[in-house]
């Protein structure tokens, strides 16, 4: 099975590029940019990655992102992630970035997007990996700040396929961002939102009904509402589930408690993603391997999860068919 996981081409739909910052690169950039980090060694950094909930992770994640200052830094960050895609046979990726984390520190929007974009162009040229960029609003900040960010993004509309919503979920419901999502939709952006990761399923209803999203990020709390489960199934609304993340942030006590198999068996459109792989002990394949080693996941489940990742991607129907055919070719 591990061999099959490795061999199958995959898409990744839920990956925060800042969450792919490995401690080695964090140290290198801290030294180069003269940024203080509260760690003495790479081992020290890894030892600090011990979280009790989403917020305890976010505090460390935002501190780590302080080392990212220049266009080259964003290029290097993205390129290192692409090398992991090559290792894991991820042939299409849709990456999130959090502009506000950087523009608040004086980094230019253009430097961020250009660094990411150039690495993704090189990924296409060198490895044939296709990609899109999704800009996330930080939900602990105001809707007004999100509007300003959307305004800045308009100059780079060609480079950004969609907008999303991340950061501290509890107390920051989707309804807080209703108008800015409406405006983003009118501007032609695809819409996604983190919902039902830590907060209850009412946040998923809000994301669907008030934000009109095309995909739900996480969404694992939907299982507590039979009515919502039926709706998600009927609409085949994609849920980008991130198993390692849910374990590391204690959304579930341990892998055996994770509900991904139940969601899948019910008929929901589920994919497997790494979220913040440098912080959550592994990239996409490691997420699949952990599922396989801890849950009664079958070969058919793995194939469904992988095919869902392509079906739910923001790519043309033609490219979807191409990629699904690639999956079938491996299965032959
Ligand atoms: N949830 C919310 N915000 C985030 C996450 C997450 O899992 N990862 C990075 N930002
Ligand atoms: Zn996430």
TrEMBL record:
Cofactor binding notes: Binds 1 zinc ion per subunit.
Cofactor(s) the record lists: Zn(2+)
Gene3D superfamilies the record matches: Metal-dependent hydrolases
Binding site for Zn(2+): 14, 16, 194, 275
Source taxon at top rank: Bacteria
UniProt keyword Zinc, yes or no: yes
Enzyme Commission identifier(s): 3.5.4.2
A single MF term (Gene Ontology): adenine deaminase activity
Binding site for substrate: 276
PROSITE patterns assigned: A_DEAMINASE
Gene Ontology biological process terms in this record: adenine catabolic process; hypoxanthine salvage; nucleotide metabolic process; purine ribonucleoside monophosphate biosynthetic process
Active site feature: 197 (proton donor)
Key words, A-Z: Cytoplasm, Hydrolase, Metal-binding, Nucleotide metabolism, Zinc
Residues flagged as site, Important for catalytic activity: 218
Record carries keyword Cytoplasm: yes
HAMAP family to which the protein is assigned, alphabetical: Adenine_deaminase
PANTHER family assigned: ADENINE DEAMINASE
NCBIfam families named in the record: aden_deam, PRK09358.1-6
Similarity section: Belongs to the metallo-dependent hydrolases superfamily. Adenosine and AMP deaminases family. Adenine deaminase type 2 subfamily.
Name of this chain's protein: Adenine deaminase
Species this chain originates from: Psychrobacter pacificensis
Gene it is expressed from: add
């Amino acid at each position: 099975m591990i061999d099959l996981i490795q061999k199958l081409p995959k898409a990744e739909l839920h990956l925060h590029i800042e969450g792919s910052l490995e401690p080695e690169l964090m140290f290198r950039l801290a030294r180069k940019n003269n940024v203080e980090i509260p760690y003495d060694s790479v081992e020290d950094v890894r030892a600090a990655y011990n979280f009790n909930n989403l917020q305890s992770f976010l505090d460390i994640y935002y501190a780590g992102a302080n080392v990212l200052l220049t266009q080259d830094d964003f290029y290097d960050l993205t390129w290192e992630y692409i090398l992991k895609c090559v290792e894991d046979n991820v042939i299409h990726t849709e990456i999130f970035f959090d502009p506000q984390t950087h523009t608040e520190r004086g980094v230019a929007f253009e430097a961020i997007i250009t660094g990411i974009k150039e690495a993704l162009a090189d990924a296409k040229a060198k490895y044939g990996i296709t990609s899109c960029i999704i800009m996330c609003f930080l939900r602990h900040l105001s809707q007004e700040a999100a509007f300003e960010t959307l305004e800045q993004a308009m100059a780079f509309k060609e480079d950004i396929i969609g907008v999303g919503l991340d950061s501290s979920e509890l107390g920051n419901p989707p309804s807080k961002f209703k108008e800015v999502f409406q405006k983003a939709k009118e501007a032609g952006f695809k819409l996604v939102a983190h919902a039902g990761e830590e907060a209850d399923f009412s946040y998923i209803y809000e994301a669907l009904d008030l934000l009109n999203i095309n995909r739900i990020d996480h969404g694992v709390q939907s299982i507590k509402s039979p009515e919502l489960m039926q709706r998600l199934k009927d609409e085949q609304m994609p849920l980008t589930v991130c198993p390692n993340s849910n374990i590391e942030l204690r959304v579930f006590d341990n892998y055996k408690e994770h509900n991904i198999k139940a969601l899948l068996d019910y008929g929901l459109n589920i994919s497997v993603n790494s979220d913040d792989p440098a912080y959550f002990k592994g990239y996409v394949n490691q997420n699949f391997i952990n599922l396989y080693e801890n849950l009664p996941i079958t070969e058919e489940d793995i194939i469904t999860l992988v095919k869902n990742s392509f079906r739910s991607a923001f790519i043309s129907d033609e490219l979807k068919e191409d990629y699904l055919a690639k999956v079938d070719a491996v299965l032959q």
